Amino acid sequence: MPDAYVIEVSGHTVGIVAREHEEDGFRFFSSSRDFNAMEGGNFADPSAAERVARHLAKHGNLPGNGQRTGKAG
Which residue, 10, 29, 31, 65, has most beta carbons within 10 Å? Predict the structure, then answer.
């Protein structure tokens, strides 16, 4: 399984997630100022990061129900 994935929203690269070897999950690194709110966030998997990025693009803020880490809470 790859250690890093590109995260795209509407055909535009917004960042990457890289596997955290010391812990479970993936760390997000923003490549667009509009997604800096996600910078350093830990996600359960690349799909979780993409869902949050799509929410941020649509609503202009991070989800408030624990989706940032891809875990319920």
Answer: 29
Q: Which tens digits make up the pLDDT trace of 22-73?
A: 778 999 999 999 999 999 999 999 999 999 999 999 999 999 854 445 543 3
Cβ neighbours around 48 below 10 Å, total: 21
- Based on the number of CB atoms within 10 Å of its own CB, is 39 exposed (0-12), middle (13-18) or buried (19 or more)? exposed
Encode the chain in three state secondary structure: CCCEEEEEECCEEEEEEEECCCCCCEEEEECCHHHHHHCCCEECCHHHHHHHHHHHHHHCCCCCCCHHHCCCC
pTM attached to this predicted model: 0.83
Domain boundaries, the chain: 4-60
